[in-house]
Specification:
alpha/beta; Four Helix Bundle (Hemerythrin (Met), subunit A); Rossmann fold; 7-stranded mixed β-sheet; binds 5-S-methyl-1-O-phosphono-5-thio-D-ribulose
């Protein structure tokens, strides 16, 4: 992504000279500072990486996966013994439970590293983490191409601006580059299509209002931020041509787990005959799960409900309380949209009816997207 004339990914390795040695670190864009501050943070250890994931300095399922891979590489810098790698894996796996990309990346790194002798593991780890990051970029570009075809088909019936509604942030900030749900939007915009995005603010953390709006603005894509409850009204008015969302985990039966509030958008879309697309890289499909009840849904701190962060009129960033002191608050971070409400799943291999996701297993490269159990 182009930021201030410079090409950026959301995560990248740094090699710095220290005491005559080349020291590997990892740089990230601190997403808790956006949209008001552009801050790059350097991470030195697997603990720091796990903390960055937990605190959502890096977030979004594909980016969490890439971050976990680099976390394993950071761990191997100190010791690549079986015990140390296992401890690093446990530390990362405990950081955020819902996005399956995290487990996928950690398992892939473990397999790669333990297949070689200990002295070679560190080098293999950095190479594999870079490969996971590069693959994510290619996957998202392919999702962009397949999604573009859907948008072109929709636009063919409507000789006017195409309105797309999205929830949370499934753009380049949620991945290594390009994004999942926003990749087709960027592809359409770059191809000269007249597109406009309705951006759900996405309480409680406002990833839509702060991150999706920020990155669409950087790219020049027209957008309008709406409160989370506006989508149904806009659909009733014919102002939404399709909904595209990302996913944190998709069951092999096509149920889509994504940011809390996604399900309500899918219900409204179904009621109004609006196509509802989920943009899903295959590392986000959990082939082990057929029943959505088995997806672990992250419960986050109640303070995210009580408090809102933003920039005050005096220019300082501030956190303000919106609930009465002493209120109870519940904060489930994700919900599940049943497959029956999903029009199509846009993957890097093409678009699938949610009930036909299993067809991907015939073409997927098992070394890239390993299947770890019965399916
Ligand atoms: O809690 P977050 O901000 O990590 O949640 C992100 C989402 O729900 C995204 O829609 C999902 O990870 C897909 S990202 C391409």
């Amino acid at each position: 992504m182009n930021i201030g004339q410079q090409q950026f990914r959301t995560i990248w390795p740094l090699i710095q000279e220290e005491g005559g040695h080349a020291l590997h670190r990892v740089a990230i864009i601190d997403q808790t500072a956006l949209p008001h501050e552009w801050r790059i943070v350097t991470l030195d250890s697997v603990q720091q990486m796990a903390d960055a994931i937990r605190r959502m300095q890096v977030r979004g399922a594909p980016l969490i996966g890439a971050a976990a891979a680099y976390g394993m590489a950071l761990a191997s810098r100190h010791s690549a013994s079986d015990g140390n790698l296992q401890a690093a894996a446990s530390c990362l796996l405990a950081s955020r439970p819902t996005a399956v990309n995290l487990r996928w990346a950690v398992e892939r790194m473990m397999r790669k590293m333990t297949a070689v002798a200990e002295p070679l593991r560190c080098e293999h780890a950095w190479r594999e983490a870079a490969q996971i990051a590069d693959e994510d970029v290619r996957i998202n570009q392919a999702i962009g191409r397949h999604g573009l075809a859907l948008l072109q088909a929709l636009a063919a019936d409507r000789p006017r601006r195409l309105n797309i509604l999205t929830h949370c942030n499934a753009g380049w900030l949620a991945t290594v580059d390009w994004g999942t749900a926003l990749a087709p939007v960027y592809a359409a915009f770059d191809a000269g299509m007249d597109v406009h995005v309705w951006v759900d603010e996405t309480r409680p953390r406002n990833q839509g209002a702060s991150l999706t709006a920020w990155e669409l603005q950087r790219h020049g894509v027209p957008y309008t931020v709406v409160c989370d409850n506006a989508g149904g009204r806009l659909m009733q008015q014919g102002k939404v041509d399709c909904v595209i969302v990302g996913a944190d985990r998709v069951t092999r039966t096509g149920d889509v787990c994504n940011k809390i509030g996604t399900y309500l958008k899918a219900l409204a879309a179904a009621d109004n005959g609006v196509p509802f697309y989920a943009a899903v890289p295959t590392p986000t499909i959990d082939w082990q799960i057929a029943d959505a009840k088995d997806i672990p849904i992250e419960e986050r701190d109640a303070d995210e409900i009580h408090m809102v962060a933003g920039r005050a009129e005096n220019g300082c960033t501030a956190r303000v309380r919106v609930t009465p002191e002493g209120s109870a608050a519940a904060n489930p971070a994700f919900d599940v949209t049943p497959a029956r409400l999903v029009t199509s799943v846009i993957t890097e291999h093409g678009c699938y009816a949610p009930g036909r996701l299993g067809d991907i297993l015939q073409i997927v490269d098992a070394t890239i997207n390993p299947i770890t159990s019965n399916h």
